[in-house]
């Protein structure tokens, strides 16, 4: 099953394209990390997926339907925006009652158990909660809606390391318990490495990389050897980046096949290394074969 499918998706604000020619599939049942620099289109993609924005070009399908197309479709998607929005003057208890009123599949038992477990005072106004507590309240509202897909836009950006760890731990427990699909944008790749098994990298409003994390790490290699022109490398090796000294060349390549040239010293990449290579090299050094796109 597919949680999100986009084909030629684009969103334009006046003269600026926030997202362009976006084509991808995000499988259901995964936690997908959405990574990119500021202005790359991450929030735009999530807003399109939630139905808060309409595409300028192309099409997007979420959980088998058009985002925002009706009550049944809206019930399938939970969305926690970047500032983990809650109503400052409403108490925790009032947030739960509002959630029950607005969401036909609301799980009141789940919401109350989470509030008790994370130690939120039901009578306390949201405006008096800490940043971590507000994030946990927003996550509770998103999960208790019982969506098929949960969209999280930089949910831990303003949290301290301990609060981030607790938030991500609770998220993974909810994924395991309720079978959620999750798409989570973040600048904190180390956090994504802990929870994500699927990855989308956006650079300059376009998709640069998408796939299962395990497969991406297995097919990317850092090669170091005598200086050479990367144009002479085998055609099945997509060159992501290349650096040269007078005598040495270091390249990052993506390939499904083995590295057979004995002149290369072959090393792997961490997820953070992989993401940084794509963010640092927005233009392809040499285009990939179609099978690798």
From TrEMBL:
The record, for SMART domains, names: AAA
Which Gene3D superfamilies does this one have?
P-loop containing nucleotide triphosphate hydrolases
Recorded protein name is: ABC transporter ATP-binding protein
Q: Note whether Transport occurs among the keywords.
A: yes
Q: Domain ABC transporter, which positions?
A: 4-229
CDD domains listed in its UniProt record: ABC_DR_subfamily_A
Q: Which UniProt keywords apply?
A: ATP-binding, Nucleotide-binding, Transport
This entry's Gene Ontology molecular function terms read: ATP binding
One family name in Pfam for this protein:
ABC_tran
Species whose genome carries this gene: Saccharothrix mutabilis subsp. mutabilis
Database matches in InterPro entries? AAA+_ATPase, ABC_transporter-like_ATP-bd, ABC_Transporter_VariousFunc, P-loop_NTPase
């Amino acid at each position: 099953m597919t949680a999100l499918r986009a084909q030629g998706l684009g969103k334009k604000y006046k003269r600026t394209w926030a997202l362009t020619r976006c084509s991808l599939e995000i499988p259901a049942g995964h936690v997908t990390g959405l990574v990119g620099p500021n202005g790359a289109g991450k929030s735009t993609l999530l807003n399109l997926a939630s139905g808060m924005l309409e595409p300028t070009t192309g099409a997007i399908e979420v959980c088998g339907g058009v985002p925002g197309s009706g009550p049944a479709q809206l019930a399938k998607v939970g969305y926690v925006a970047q500032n983990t929005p809650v109503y400052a003057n409403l108490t925790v208890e009032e947030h739960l009652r509002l959630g029950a009123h607005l969401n036909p599949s609301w799980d009141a038992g789940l919401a109350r158990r989470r509030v008790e477990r994370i130690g939120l005072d039901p009578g306390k106004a949201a405006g008096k909660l800490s940043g971590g507590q507000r994030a946990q309240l927003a996550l509770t509202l998103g999960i208790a809606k019982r969506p098929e897909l949960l969209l999280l836009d930089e949910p831990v950006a303003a949290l301290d390391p301990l609060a981030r760890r607790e938030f991500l731990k609770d998220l993974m427990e909810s994924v395991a318990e309720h079978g959620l699909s999750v798409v989570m944008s973040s600048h904190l790749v180390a956090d994504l490495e802990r929870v994500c098994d699927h990855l989308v990298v956006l650079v300059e409003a376009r998709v640069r990389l998408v796939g299962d994390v395990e497969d991406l790490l297995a097919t990317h290699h850092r090669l170091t050897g005598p200086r050479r022109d990367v144009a002479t490398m085998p055609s099945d090796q997509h060159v992501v980046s290349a650096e040269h000294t007078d005598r040495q060349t270091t390249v990052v390549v993506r390939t499904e096949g083995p590295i057979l040239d004995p002149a290369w010293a072959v090393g792997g990449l961490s997820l953070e290394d992989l993401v940084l290579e794509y963010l640092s090299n927005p233009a392809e050094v040499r285009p990939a074969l179609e099978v690798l796109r």
